[in-house]
Design brief:
Helices cover about 0% and strands about 45% of the residues. It has no helices and 42 strands. Strands 15, 16, 18, 19 and 20 form a five-stranded antiparallel beta sheet that branches. Strand 26 and strand 27 form a beta hairpin. The termini are far apart.
């Protein structure tokens, strides 16, 4: 007990003094590595015996490293990454420091690589070529990479243990859009975070070859022909067709024609030619060019022929000769080209009399008969391009031939020959002159009309030649001849007796002066007349060919048969004298 100076027992207290004998802590047990990270290690250990004095702290030691810790679990910081450490622990109380613990297992702090950038993708046929940039590291170097693809193909969605910075992922489906991520592995126990997904990429191959093109002719443009080419779209093999190349080939020369990817036909303007064109097509997508399509069937680029020029018409006999400049064949060969004609705008014909396949020909066949006026057009036609336009018509042409024979006639059998003439019908040219020649004499004009005249006398042959001349100066002739009749026998008759006179009428008598005698005859015929019947002469009288004269005899019988003799020529029939 302890009292104060008062010695008052109530003011006494009782105290206990305890004495503790203390020593340094025991050595901690071997520390354990709980985790390793970027410049950090988490270390734990079991608390050692205090030896009479509470442990006030710990010190973790390693080569070149020391850190105070307040508990038996301590996060060690400030370490050097990718450096191997062995840690020991010293416990401290107020007495002092314990011996160091045994060394921990080796520990190597390390940092996971930074998050890689999104990889870059390049497509291929059923594959993607993937590349990436190595990320920054703050510890050990990157050792490998893992790729992850989405959507995952049948073979799996990850590729691990990849070294380098690129990889070709095969076995993918063309036309499917993929994204890829990458993570990096260093010696740190954990990988980097996954990168962001790449831009989407679609694997694709070149398109299949287009189908065989078909080619047809469409209306031309000016002097050039147009061909329509069409084809079936090929399989795109994972990427849309972006374009086509249409290859036009003629005579070994090929021209490439670009065509937009959205169309499968193209109209091509080409020069007309007797040589054929062929076509093939190449499809283009982002993967490249397809194989060429099969070659199309060959097709000629031919237009209808042009118009012939400079048509000239020359008149012939029921025919016209045409000359003209050749039409532009516009791709037709000479053997495919022919010409047709039209008369006065009538239907086209090809029945040339001759020619008509080059630059001249003769037409006829009743289409350009004489005595008509005609204008004639010509056009070319080809077996492959059809009929071309008409030429300008020729000038007017009037076919003609030699003049027809004029009319010529001769009629005989009478006292004279009657000669006749007449103009012929025109044969394409007007008759401008008509002449006659009688009995081979000189020609004399008789106008251009019909006529006739009597020539000669009995028992004569007379002829006529008629000559007609037309406006072209051509002539034609015709002849005729006839014989006049034999002269009629003279005849006479008596009448109108009066006293010693009587009227003598004669016909067809050779006119002249005759001794006219009077007879008393018993019969009507000189054969029955006898000299005793002679009455006497009436004298020399002028006897006409046809007509009457008065005959006065020196004496006349009182009655009987009376007759007159025209001396040496004729005895009249007897007349009964009253």
């Amino acid at each position: 007990r302890i009292g104060d100076a008062t010695n008052d027992p109530n003011r006494e207290v009782t105290g206990t003094i305890t004495l503790t004998v203390a020593g340094k802590p025991s050595a901690p047990l071997t520390p354990a590595i709980q985790s390793v990270s970027d410049r950090t290690v988490v270390l734990t250990w079991a608390a050692p015996s205090e030896n009479g004095s509470p442990i006030t702290g710990y010190t973790v030691l390693a080569a070149g490293f020391q850190q105070k810790c307040v508990s038996t679990s301590c996060t060690l910081t400030g370490l050097t990454n990718n450096t191997t450490y062995g840690f020991t622990v010293v416990a401290t109380n107020k007495v002092g420091d314990s011996p160091a613990s045994p060394s921990s297992a080796p520990a190597r702090p390390d940092a996971v690589p930074d998050t890689p950038a999104a990889p870059a993708l390049a497509f291929g046929d059923g594959l993607l070529s993937i590349s990436w940039v190595a990320p920054q590291t703050h510890g050990s170097a990157v050792q490998s990479y893992t790729l992850q693809i989405s959507p995952a193909p049948a073979s799996g969605g990850q590729k691990s243990g990849l070294t380098g910075n690129s990889y070709t992922w095969t076995g993918l489906t063309n036309g499917t859009s993929y994204t890829v991520q990458v993570e990096a592995f260093s010696l740190a126990p954990s990988p980097s975070p996954w990168s962001a997904p790449s831009a989407a990429m679609v694997p694709a191959g070149v398109p299949s070859a287009p189908g065989t093109p078909s080619v047809s002719k469409v209306p031309s443009v000016g002097s050039q022909a147009q061909l329509a080419v069409s084809w079936s779209a090929p399989t795109d093999n994972g990427a849309p067709i972006s374009a086509y190349t249409l290859n036009e080939t003629q005579n070994g020369t090929t021209i490439a024609i670009p065509v937009a990817g959205g169309q499968t036909s193209q109209t091509v303007t080409v020069a007309v030619s007797a040589s054929s064109y062929t076509f093939s097509v190449i499809a283009v997508n982002k993967a490249g060019n397809s194989s060429p399509s099969p070659t199309s069937a060959a097709l000629r680029a031919v237009n209808a022929p042009g118009a012939p020029g400079s048509v000239s018409a020359t008149a012939g006999n029921n025919a016209v000769t045409l000359t003209y400049s050749a039409a532009d064949p516009n791709g037709a060969s000479p053997s495919e080209l022919s010409y047709e004609y039209s008369v006065n705008g009538a239907a086209w014909r090809n029945d040339w009399v001759s020619g008509g396949s080059g630059t001249s020909g003769v037409i006829g066949n009743g289409q350009v008969n004489n005595n008509g006026n005609y204008t004639i057009s010509v056009r070319a036609t080809s077996t492959i391009g059809g009929a071309g336009p008409s030429s300008a018509p020729s000038g007017s042409v009037a076919p003609f031939g030699p003049p027809n024979q004029p009319g010529a006639g001769a009629t005989g059998g009478g006292a004279q020959v009657n000669l006749q003439w007449g103009p012929p019908a025109p044969n394409g040219r007007a008759i401008v002159s008509l002449e006659i020649s009688v009995d081979g004499g000189a020609y004399q004009a008789v106008g251009v009309s019909s006529g006739n005249e009597n020539v000669g006398t009995y028992s004569q042959t007379h002829s006529i030649t008629v000559r007609a001349t037309d406006a072209a100066g051509q002539t034609s002739t015709n002849s005729a001849s006839a014989v006049s009749g034999a002269p009629p026998q003279p005849s006479g008759s008596l009448s109108g007796e009066s006293g010693q006179s009587i009227l003598l009428t004669v016909a067809n008598f050779p006119p002249g002066t005759y001794n006219v005698k009077c007879w008393n005859a018993l019969a009507h015929s000189p054969a029955h007349m006898t000299d005793p019947g002679y009455i006497g002469s009436a004298g020399l009288l002028s006897v006409p060919a046809n007509g009457s004269i008065t005959v006065t005899c020196p004496a006349m019988p009182a009655a009987g048969i009376f007759s007159v003799e025209i001396q040496g020529q004729y005895w009249t029939p007897g007349i009964q004298w009253q």
